[in-house]
Design a protein that fits this description.
Number of helices: 14
Number of strands: 18
Structural class: alpha/beta
Helix content: 40-55%
CATH superfamily of the largest domain: Aldehyde Dehydrogenase, Chain A, domain 1
Radius of gyration: 25 Å
Strand content: 15-25%
CATH class of the largest domain: Alpha Beta
Number of domains: 2
């Protein structure tokens, strides 16, 4: 779409929002119902597109894409009325008679930008928040998954007026043009460098942003952990969607005394999950582009390949790969891998391990495997990350009751469940006063009973 067309959609959305049509709870519930109907009607086409572009098995696609969106919609429908209610808060004595409340109100016209790794979920789950909050939305899907993006555009176009919700298939230049326009909120999911670019562009209009980014998520394995179960859960979390996941374990950091046993069990788990030749497994996905395969192959030059290390650029296949013998100075540890390569490091002192984790940018997720309650509390207390999952991977992301988001370089702002409503709502503070009492002491000229008035204010406010 050209710049004129994008500006026209933006203008129509501003007009629609100004009509106040989005403000009522019945309207928002109706729109959530329409989104659910659109999803169920288009699910077959969505699953087929995801299979073609990312090799996603139907179960994996439901778990991470259509199912996540369906669960989010159902949860929002059940709880929207409660979320929309004004929150009553205490009023200081000095301001009585009066009352105070916090009223959630929509930001207005929002822009939602999604990446390619979960092209449905990461575009439309934030849309649920935008609808719940009473906003309009312009959706920009990734150009790297054109089939899925086309299905989404057709689905949204069939069910929604573009003056309310519109999908814009745009490349980098068109995306930059969009970012330069005045929005009331931008919700972005993607890499850290791209997030910096979005934030810089948004700053020109003082547009608030929610940034869901990524990072090198550590998987800390203590010697007290159940080795077999830990290995299976790490392998599942790492190679889900062929490792193309912002919350995938990026590296395993294991106690030296159990590291070798853990690697053996992880290799066993890979074979149990995907067979001797994962290329032939319907449960193992594909890399999004040939360029990404080539980029990951460049990471294989260091350390010792304990498993995998094979790839085929033409078919976008990259095997589940485990690499040992690397350290924090290795090339593979300098940035987020975002693919099916799992680096394994070892430690002998837990204090040093925590220090090494803290010396790096705060990750989006931290995974800890341990039976020790003392260590669990220590890691929770002494590290900072977007979220933590103890004795499992990825699971915290699926809860509607846990806010999801990053901290520091892994992002800002949170969503899922009520947090999605909050992300797309401005909390407006309101104090309602009466004409019954008017305190003359607060008006000029000042100086009368100064010490007494100060004490009164200290006691009543």
């Amino acid at each position: 779409m050209n710049e004129t067309g994008m500006l026209e959609i933006l203008r129509k959305q501003r007009e629609f929002f100004s009509s106040h049509a989005t403000l009522s709870r019945p309207f928002r519930l109706e729109m959530l119902g329409k989104l659910k109907s659109a999803l169920l009607e288009s699910e077959g086409a969505i699953l087929a597109a995801l299979k073609t572009e990312l090799g996603k098995h139907e179960i994996e696609a439901f778990e991470s894409e259509t199912g996540q969106l369906l669960f989010e919609i159902n949860h929002a429908i059940r709880h929207l009325g409660k979320w929309m209610r004004p929150e009553k808060v205490p009023t200081p004595l000095f301001h009585l008679p009066g009352r105070s409340e916090i009223i959630p109100e929509p930001y207005g016209v929002t822009l939602i930008i999604a990446p390619w790794n979960f092209p449905l979920q990461l575009l439309l789950v934030p849309l649920v928040g935008a609808i719940c909050g009473g906003n309009t939305a312009i959706l920009k899907p990734s150009s790297k998954t054109p089939l899925t993006s086309r299905v989404i555009a057709e689905m949204i176009g069939q069910y929604f007026d573009p003056a309310y919700i519109s999908v814009l298939a745009a490349g980098r230049e068109e995306g930059d043009f969009l970012l330069g326009q005045k929005f009331d909120l931008i919700f972005f999911t993607g890499g850290t460098e791209a997030g910096k670019h979005v934030m810089a562009e948004a700053s020109g209009n003082l547009t608030p942003v929610v940034l869901e980014l990524g990072g090198k998520n550590p998987c800390l394995v203590d010697k007290s952990a159940d080795i077999r179960t830990s290995a299976r859960r790490i392998v599942w979390g790492k190679f889900f969607n062929a490792g193309q996941d912002c919350i995938a374990p990026d590296y395993v950091y294991a106690d030296k005394s159990i590291k070798d046993a853990l690697v053996r069990e992880m290799k066993t788990a890979v074979r149990e999950f995907y067979g001797e030749d994962p290329r032939a497994s319907a449960s193992y996905g594909r890399i999004v582009t040939q360029e990404r395969v080539e980029a990951m192959s460049a990471l294989l030059g260091e350390g010792k390949i304990a498993l995998g290390g094979t790839f085929d650029k033409e078919s976008r296949y990259f095997s589940p790969t485990i690499i040992e013998g690397v350290d924090f100075g290795s090339k593979i540890m300098q940035g987020e891998i975002f693919g099916p390569i799992l680096a394994v490091l070892e430690f002998t002192d837990i204090a040093e391990a925590i220090r090494n984790i803290n010396d790096r940018p705060k990750p989006l997720a931290l995974y800890l495997f341990t039976r020790s309650g003392e260590l669990r509390e220590r890691v929770l207390r002494e590290t900072s990350s977007g979220g933590v999952c103890v004795n499992d991977t990825l699971s915290h992301f699926t809860s509607r009751y846990l806010p999801f988001g990053g901290v520091g370089q892994s992002g800002m702002g949170q969503y899922h469940g009520k947090s999605s409503f909050d992300a797309f709502s401005h909390k407006k503070s309101v104090m309602r006063k009466s004409f019954l009492i008017d305190y003359a002491l607060r008006y000029p000229p000042y100086g009368r009973l100064t010490s007494w008035y100060r004490k009164l204010l200290e006691w009543t406010t």
